[in-house]
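Problem: given the chain below (96 residues), write out its structure.
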Amino acid sequence: MKRHNDQIIGDILKEWANKKRFKSKINQVKIKEMWTELMGASVAKHTLDIALRQNKLFIELDSSPLRQELSYGKEKIMKILNEAIGEALIEKVIIR
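Solution.
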């Protein structure tokens, strides 16, 4: 018996994942996975944590000189990550 509301499982999963609270977590995982590739191994080595909350990216570093250097490039970091994700998700970068 054929049903009229047949949907592809992939479409259902995308719809479910795009709900706001899940999408934020998925994007945070994507950013963490891409961090070394996009920012380089030396930056990744000194990165303690990356968190995405309310369109703000929080980056925690263990190196004061690197923190100072990256603070001058916040706009560039935001642009690189937004392009990699494919949407203007990050509105502000906060480096601690």
